[in-house]
Write a structure and sequence with these properties.
heterodimer; A: alpha+beta; Cytochrome-c3 Hydrogenase, chain B; three-stranded antiparallel beta sheet; B: 221 residues; alpha+beta; Alpha-Beta Plaits; 2 domains; binds iron/sulfur cluster
C-alpha cells in the first residue's frame, strides 16, 4: 500500500527560538525533506544607515554597536577605519594596538557564541553552550574594564580609542590568556570527535566554494570551503601586517568544517593578542589634535575589516558637514545568508537549524 | 564509531562539575544556617537563640542574603552623577546626546567672583528610559560636571519613573564612574566605596588658588 503524501508549507519564525533572532523562513517540506525555502527578513530593521545621516561622526559609533551586537568592537573598528580614511586622521600607535587587542578578544567571544549555539541547535542542550558562554563572560569582564560596557562598547574613537586601558586590565588579560587555551581545548575534546556530532554534521549542507565566491560570501564560512580569503591577511588594516598568524582552512565546506574553522580561529586570535601585548608601547591613545566634532572634507571612503562573521565594510560619503551624507554598511551576515536556499533545500528538517546556525548570522546586522 | 569520544567528553563535563562555580546568584543568594548567621555577624547558635524563625528557614535552605555583583570603575551605570556647582548650563551634553534625551532649562545667573559666569539651572532632566548609556554626554561636558554613575539598579513600574529629575540628580550620592574621567583613575577613586566630597575634586585640572581666580575673573574685567 502506498501512502498519499503532499508537500506542506510552514512559516518558521520570526519569533522562533531557533532562528537566532527575528528571522522568518517559509519552508516547504515533503515529509522530512526540505523542498523549498524562502528567507524573509526585515523584522529588526531600525534604519541605522538613515539614522547615521543625522548624527555626527562620533555619535554614529553608538549605532554601529547595535548592528552586530555580539561583536561590537569589530563593528566600531570598521566604522572608525572608514572615518579615518575619509578624514585622513593618522591614528596613534597605542590606540591601534589597543583596538586590535579588543577586536581579537571580540572575535573569540563571537566565535564562542557561534560554536556554542551551533551545538545547541544540534540538541546538545545546555552544556557546551554554557561552557562557551562562561568563557565569553570573562572576555566581557575585560571589556567592562576597558570601557564600562559589556555589549554596546562604543570604545573606539577616530584616531584610536577613547581612553587608555586601566592598570588592572593587563594582569587580568594575562590571566585570561593563560586560561583560555585550556578552555578551548576542553571544548575541542568535548565536541570535535564526538560521534553524535560527527554523524550529524559531516557532509551536511555542503556549499561549493565557487558558489560561495560568486555570492561574495566571506568569513569562516568561506574559509571552511578552502578559499584562503582573510582581510587581515589579504588587505591588512591597522597593524595586522606586523603580526603573524595562520589562517585555518578546511576543504569540506560542511557544517563540521565551519565549526572547526571557528575553533581554530579562536586559537589564532589568542596568538595575535599575545603579539599585540608584546608590541604595545606607552603613548597617547589618540592624537590630541583630533577634534571632538570631526568634520571631514567632501569625498567618500570605504573601509572593510574581517569581522567574526565576514567582511564588514563601511562606505561613508561626506559633503563636508559634521554628519555623513550617506553611510552604507556591507553586512556580512546579510550576504552570507544569500546561499541559504541552496544550503538547505534537499536536506532534512532536523539539520535545517544546524546549517542555519553554522552560517553564524546576527539579525541586528542583517536588518540594521 | 566506538563511543570512546563520548566517554572522553563525559570526562570533560565531570571535570567542570567539580570546578568552583563561576556564576553568581543575583540579587539574592541562598544560604544555610552558617551563611545566614555570618551575614548577621552572629554565631549559628546565636542566630538560633535570637531569631529562631530565620534559623529554621536557613536550615531548610530557604533563607537568602543579598548578593552584590562587583562592577569595574568605568562602569557606565544608569544613575548619572551631576555636580551642580560645576555645571555652567552650557547644554553641550544635551546637544551631544545622540538621542536628545537631556532637557535643560536655564535662567541667566549672576557672576560668581569665584567661578565666573554661569546659568542657573531650572530643569535638568535625563530620560534614561531612552538612554543607551553611551556616555557621549559625559565626553562632551567641558566642565566635568556630568559623570556616568557607577550604580545600575534602577527599575520602576512606570516610564515616568525613568526620568531622572533635577532634584534627584542634586540629591543623589556623588559616585561618578571613571568613564572618560582619567582624573578619578589617577588618584584611585573608587565609586563603590567613597563619594566626591568637594566639587573641585572632580575636575581634570588642578584647583586654582584664590589668587589665580582673581587674576582670571576680576582683573580681566
Ligand atoms: S549616555 Fe548617551 S544616550 Fe544617555 S544621556 Fe548620555 S549621551 Fe544621551
Ligand atoms: S553638565 Fe556639563 S555639558 Fe551639561 S550643561 Fe552642565 S556644564 Fe554643560
Amino acid at each position: 500500500m502506498t501512502l498519499k503524501t503532499e508537500p506542506i508549507t510552514i512559516n518558521i519564525g520570526p519569533q522562533h527560538p531557533s532562528t537566532h533572532g527575528v528571522f522568518r523562513m517559509r519552508v516547504t517540506f515533503d515529509g522530512e525533506t526540505v523542498v523549498d525555502l524562502e528567507p524573509i527578513f526585515g523584522y529588526l530593521h531600525r534604519g541605522s544607515e538613515k539614522l547615521a545621516e543625522e548624527r555626527t561622526y562620533t555619535q554614529v559609533v553608538t549605532l554601529t554597536d547595535r548592528m552586530d551586537y555580539v561583536a561590537s568592537m569589530t563593528n566600531n573598528q570598521g566604522y572608525i577605519l572608514a572615518v579615518e580614511k575619509l578624514t585622513g586622521i593618522e591614528p596613534s600607535p597605542r590606540g591601534v594596538w589597543l583596538r586590535m587587542i579588543a577586536a581579537e578578544l571580540q572575535r573569540i567571544a563571537s566565535h564562542l557564541v557561534a560554536v556554542g549555539f551551533l551545538i545547541q541547535d544540534l540538541g546538545a542542550w545546555g552544556t557546551p553552550l554554557i561552557y562557551a558562554m562562561r568563557e565569553r563572560e570573562k572576555i566581557l569582564d575585560l571589556f567592562e574594564m576597558l570601557c564600562g560596557a559589556r555589549i554596546t562598547n562604543s570604545y573606539l574613537r577616530p584616531g584610536g580609542v577613547f581612553m587608555d586601558a586601566p592598570d588592572e586590565f593587563w594582569p587580568a588579560l594575562d590571566i585570561l590568556l593563560a586560561d583560555l587555551p585550556q578552555r578551548i581545548d576542553e571544548l575541542d575534546q568535548l565536541l570535535t570527535n564526538n560521534e553524535i556530532i560527527v554523524a550529524r554534521t559531516i557532509n551536511v549542507a555542503v556549499v561549493e566554494p565557487e558558489a560561495m565566491v560568486n555570492a561574495s560570501i566571506t568569513g569562516p564560512m568561506l574559509r571552511a570551503g578552502g578559499v584562503d580569503w582573510d582581510l587581515r591577511h589579504r588587505d591588512p588594516y591597522d597593524y595586522y601586517d606586523q603580526v603573524e598568524f595562520e589562517r585555518p582552512l578546511h576543504t569540506a565546506s560542511d557544517n563540521n568544517a565551519r565549526y572547526w574553522v571557528r575553533l581554530q580561529e579562536m586559537r589564532e586570535s589568542i596568538k595575535i593578542v599575545k603579539q599585540c601585548i608584546e608590541r604595545i608601547e606607552p603613548g597617547p591613545v589618540r592624537p590630541p589634535e583630533v577634534p571632538f566634532l570631526v568634520r571631514p572634507p567632501a569625498g567618500d571612503g570605504y573601509a572593510a575589516v574581517e569581522a567574526p562573521k565576514g567582511e564588514l565594510g563601511f562606505y561613508l560619503v561626506s559633503d563636508g558637514g559634521i554628519a555623513p551624507y550617506r553611510c552604507h554598511v556591507r553586512a556580512p551576515s546579510l550576504i552570507n545568508l544569500t546561499l541559504l536556499r541552496e544550503m538547505l533545500v534537499g536536506g532534512m528538517v532536523a539539520d535545517m537549524f544546524v546549517s542555519f546556525g553554522s552560517i553564524d548570522i546576527n539579525m541586528g546586522e542583517v536588518d540594521r | 564509531m566506538t563511543g570512546l569520544n563520548l566517554l572522553r567528553a563525559l570526562f570533560v563535563t565531570m571535570k567542570n562539575f567539580v570546578r568552583a562555580p563561576f556564576t553568581v546568584q543575583y540579587p539574592d543568594r541562598r544560604v544555610g544556617l552558617v551563611g545566614a548567621a555570618k551575614a548577621e555577624g552572629k554565631s549559628p547558635l546565636g542566630l538560633i537563640r535570637n531569631n529562631p524563625k530565620r534559623a529554621i528557614k536557613a536550615m531548610a535552605m530557604l533563607a537568602t542574603v543579598p548578593e552584590k555583583v562587583p562592577q569595574n570603575k568605568r562602569f557606565r551605570g544608569n544613575e548619572f552623577t551631576w555636580l551642580e556647582t560645576r555645571c555652567t548650563g552650557c547644554a553641550s551634553c544635551a546637544k551631544y546626546c545622540p538621542l536628545g534625551i537631556i532637557e535643560i532649562v536655564t535662567h541667566p545667573g549672576g557672576i560668581d567672583v569665584q567661578e565666573g559666569e554661569s546659568y542657573g539651572i531650572d530643569v535638568f532632566d535625563i530620560d534614561i528610559g531612552r538612554c543607551m548609556f553611551c556616555g557621549l554626554c559625559v565626553e562632551a561636558c567641558p566642565y566635568d560636571a556630568l559623570h556616568m554613575g557607577a550604580t545600575f539598579e534602577r527599575s520602576t513600574y512606570t516610564r515616568a519613573g525613568l526620568v531622572i529629575p533635577v532634584d534627584e540628580l542634586r540629591a543623589a550620592p556623588k559616585t561618578p564612574s571613571s568613564w572618560f574621567r582619567p582624573q578619578f583613575e589617577e588618584r584611585g577613586f573608587n565609586p563603590f566605596e567613597e563619594q566626591v566630597e568637594n566639587h573641585h575634586e572632580a575636575g581634570r585640572h588642578e584647583q586654582p588658588t584664590p589668587e589665580e581666580l582673581r587674576q582670571r575673573w576680576v582683573n580681566q574685567r
